[in-house]
Design a protein that fits this description.
Blueprint lengths: L1 E9 L2 H11 L4 E3 L6 E4 L6 E6 H7 L15 E6 L3 H10 L3 E9 L4 E7 L5 E7 L7
Parallel strand pairs: 1-4, 5-8
Antiparallel strand pairs: 1-5, 2-3, 3-4, 6-7, 7-8
Keywords: Dioxygenase, Lyase, Oxidoreductase
InterPro entries: Glyas_Bleomycin-R_OHBP_Dase, Glyas_Fos-R_dOase_dom, VOC_core
Organism: Nocardiopsis sinuspersici
Length: about 140
């Protein structure tokens, strides 16, 4: 697994977008002030991403304000793998708590599965969706 993104799941996307792009002056790689998702270059192989918190809660079919999970979806650590299904099956067999089985997220261009660590933090494993070959 290769850590590709540290994703901050933020409440005030616009303010955070301006902070990272204008105050920290991080080069923007993807997204804009209205997209609810953006990636910034942090001069390493790992990117810093911000995501509107509700977007992730909707995608995982969870409640972003669930008081039973106080750490839920404030941060996600993203790992790229060669095969999401095989890696997810191995993680589950080894005792990892899966919260979303592997599925294609076509809007995001990835196949991903989601897990929680023992403290409730969100982990994602993903791989890029291959473009469909023209026939």
């Amino acid at each position: 697994m290769r850590c590709t993104n540290i994703r901050l799941l933020v409440n005030d996307y616009e303010a955070c977008f301006h902070f990272y792009s204008e105050i920290l002056k991080l080069p923007l790689l993807r997204g804009d002030e209205n997209s609810r998702y953006a990636e910034f270059d942090v001069d390493s192989g790992t990117r810093l991403a911000i995501n509107q918190r509700e977007v992730m809660a909707e995608a995982l079919e969870t409640d972003a304000a669930d008081p039973k999970l106080p750490h839920q979806d404030r941060l996600a650590v993203i790992f790229e793998v060669d095969d999401v299904d095989t890696t997810a099956a191995k993680l589950v067999a080894d005792g990892a708590r899966q919260v979303m089985e592997p599925r294609d997220w076509t809007a995001w261009g990835i196949r991903a599965a989601h897990f929680r660590d023992p403290d409730g933090y969100l982990l994602e494993i993903n791989c890029p969706l291959l473009p469909v070959a023209a026939v």
